[in-house]
Structure formats: structure tokens, C-alpha cells
Amino acid sequence: MNFIRTLALLSAPLFLILSCSSTTKVTSQFNTPETSGRTFSLESLTGSAERTTVDDLAFYVSHDETHLYILVDFVSSRRFQNAREFGFSLYVDGSSSARRSFGVTYPTGIYYQLGNFPGAQQGYLEEPNWSNFPENRSIKEAAERNSRQNALLVQRQSRRDPMQPFPLPVAQLDAQGLKLHLDDDDRTGRISFAIPLQTGPTSQFSPDLQPGETIDIGFEIDPIRLLDMNLRGGAPLITSETASGHARTDSNQEERERADRLLRRMGDPYETWVRVTLASP
């Protein structure tokens, strides 16, 4: 894990800056956005709810008797591209919940989905023109589709429970009342979340919230955590040297240079939190 530790150390200063900024506080209006079927729109939020900008994101939040509605606009096209490649995580923590007790990653990210194809993740990170090779185009297209058709969920009871996201099809989540939609027609994207307030027979996945409660909502893009998660459960990281049969032990300097190169490819880790009070009806 020396390689992962090097990545973490290199990214720590920026990550601390993003994490330690003052917390934005907003009030979620009691509202009923228009929803219809599997593909739903939260456009009514842009006319009734307050637009709040934090770093490279703008978001709207509202709720009704059954759901919390969040619409995220990416102000930065570069940040949106990073989310498409490495996934965008939304965390919703109740007032008495542990940090990151309930989370949804959507889209899951091209890099995550490339894990279904042997060697594709490594090539995607380390070969700048990997996606342009004819034999890789169909693989990337499949990964992009899977990234939109699936999500990763975290649901924990305490901070002692491990952070182990589990994948679920978007269609299955929709049947449980958790609706997700990605609009990336423009240079900057928009992601909509409709999350059940309470668990129940038809809403298995929920942060269990109450009107009047003050909650924490987190937005995160963390390629390093994703890379770490994949390395823990898989084979050792394959480099061009090991693949060619000429493996050698990297010095600390070589390891740091490689980590720096991959950091530039993956982009900056991103994390920001807001405090939201759910207005009572």
C-alpha cells in the first residue's frame, strides 16, 4: 500500500482545504416537485427552492412528506468530467447518524465500471490515448452505459461499520422509491436525486429523516479512495514493467513520480458538506 499512501500524501493539502472550509447552512423548503415515472424532473426546484453555490457545485434542495429532493448542477465542466470518470457520491447523514452513514454514488464512474474488463482500469489511467484505440472504444462505451445504469449504495448504522458500497441497478432503486437521473447533454452536467425520507416496505434504502431535523449533506469525488478500494480486493497493481516481464523495485522517488502522474490524470479529490434544516409542513 506504499503507492496508495504516496497518493494520499500528495493530495492531502488540497483535500484538507476543501474539507475544512466553513459549513454552508440552508433550509430545505417543504415542496412537492413534479415527478413522473422512472425519468423524473426536479425542474420545479429551480423556481421555488434557493440556489446555493459551494465551490464548483450549485444545488437545490427540497422535500415533501415522503422524499428528499436534491438537484446538483456542476458549475465547472472539468469537475463534471471528473465525476463522470470516477463517480459522484452524495451523502445524507441524520442528526444522530455517523458521518457517511447513508450514501449514493451516481454515476458510478467510468473507471469503476472498467473493473469488469481485465486490464482496462490500468490502461485507462496510465495510457493517455487508451480510449482512442479501436479495440478499447467499445469497452469504454459499455463502461459509460453501466455507469449510468447502476449506482453504489452505502448504508451504515455506526462509524464502526465498514465503508463497503454495494452496487445496485438504477431500475431496482427506482422500484424502491429512490430515483436518480443524469443529464449530461451540455458541457456541464446535472444530477437529480429523490431519496425516501423513511425506510418501509417499498423504500428499503433511506437515511431515515424527519421534517424539522437538521442534517448534513456531503458531495464527494474521491478517485484515490476508489483506487484504494479496488486494490485491496484485487490483484497487485500491474505496471508496464511487470507486464513486460521486466519488473523491478521502484525507488521512493520513482514511486512518487508515478503517483504524481496518476494524480494529474485522476484530477483533484473533491469534498464539501452543507448543513440542511428540513422545514416542517
Structural overview:
The protein is α+β, with helices and mostly antiparallel strands and 281 residues long. Helices cover 33% and strands 26% of the residues. It contains 10 helices and 12 strands. The longest helix is centred in the N-terminal third of the chain and has 18 residues, at 2-19. Residues 6-11, 13-20, 35-40 and 231-248 have low confidence and may be disordered.
Topology:
Layout: H1 2-19, E1 24-30, H2 45-48, E2 52-54, E3 57-63, E4 67-74, H3 77-86, E5 89-93, E6 102-105, H4 110-113, H5 120-126, H6 134-149, E7 150-155, E8 166-169, H7 170-175, E9 179-183, E10 190-196, E11 214-221, H8 223-232, H9 240-243, H10 252-266, E12 270-278
Parallel strand pairs: 1-3, 1-12
Antiparallel strand pairs: 2-3, 3-4, 4-10, 5-6, 5-11, 6-7, 7-8, 9-10, 11-12
Helix pairs in contact: 1-10
**How much of the sequence is in beta strands?**
25-35%
Cα radius of gyration in angstroms: 20 Å
Structural class of the secondary elements?
A: alpha+beta
Total helix count?
A: 10
Oligomeric status of the shown chains? single chain
Give the beta-strand count: 12
Order of helices and strands: HEHEEEHEEHHHEEHEEEHHHE
Query: Strand count, sense and closure of the main sheet?
Result: 12 strands, mixed
Alpha carbon gap, first and last residue: 50 Å
Helix content: 25-40%
Q: Mean pLDDT across all residues, rounded?
A: 79
Q: Pick out the low-confidence regions.
A: 6-11, 13-20, 35-40, 231-248
- Taken from the alpha-carbon principal axes, the silhouette is globular
